[in-house]
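This section describes the prediction task in plain terms. A model, or a person checking by hand, is given the sequence of a single protein chain and must write out its three-dimensional structure as a string of tokens. No templates, partner chains or ligands are provided. The sample shown here is typical of the held-out split.
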Amino acid sequence: MDQERGNRKTLTGVVVSDKMDKTVVVRVERLVRHPVYHKTVKRRKKFKAHDQNNACGVGDKVLIIESRPLSRDKRWRIKEILEKAL
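The expected answer:
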């Protein structure tokens, strides 16, 4: 799986749940400008990502990459763990 195919989206987020087998829930935060008030607002979204080796824990900062559908709502894979939680 080291060889990449095409341009796939990558996102950076924090693991908020690792209770499932080979699956983690990653919360991704982004900043957007409000269209009327022009204030910067935080938007959060949770993605389920495939963790083949069950290596991630809650609080880890991870890089996820887009992939084919792996289950009903799992469309992302863990590419690398950027920093481990304490």
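For orientation: The chain has one domain: 10-83.
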